[in-house]
Known about the structure:
It is a single chain. Helices cover 55% and strands 22% of the residues. The protein starts with 11 loop residues before the first helix and ends with a strand. It is rod-shaped, with a radius of gyration of 47 Å. It folds into 2 domains: 11-81; 84-165, General secretion pathway protein M, EpsM (Gyrase A, domain 2). The protein is α+β, with helices and mostly antiparallel strands and 168 residues long. Strands 1, 2, 3, 4 and 5 form a 5-stranded antiparallel beta sheet that branches.
Amino acid sequence: MDNTFETPQGRLLPTLVAFVFVLGLLYTLYLAFTQYNLKGAIEDLGVQKEKLTGQIEVLKDQQVAEIFVAQELKNKLEVLAVRWSTVVTQFNQLTPVGVFLSSYGISSEGSIQVSGVGDDFDSVASMIAAFNDSEDFGDAFVPSVTQGTTSDGQSVATFSLTTHTVAQ
Length: 168
């Protein structure tokens, strides 16, 4: 048996080393490329953040301006608002002694409707004159006055009066 065993001269190990080296080189390139892309994305996010911060500042400035406009409108409305407690007090002060008011109807626009009973036509006429002469009310109008008697036999005049408040 003279067969001598010879080791094969293969290139498996150098090929394997070269393959691992190329694979490592490719992975390193992949990581470098990914890091470069991430840095670019971070820079883009920084630019977007600066833009959004600027837009927020602009919106804050606009909101402040809108708040001032809203406050000014609120102040104007408060000046023009009718103080109904004052209106009712003035109504009672203008009502003559012989007239008794039974109901008030008030609208948000300042229109007022009142129903009442007077001793006679003269007391109702004096109430109309008082409202027409007043600086607080305007255009007093009584569409009808009805003369009647109570169960006691007393003569009364029932009426409804329409007027409006003058801006105070």
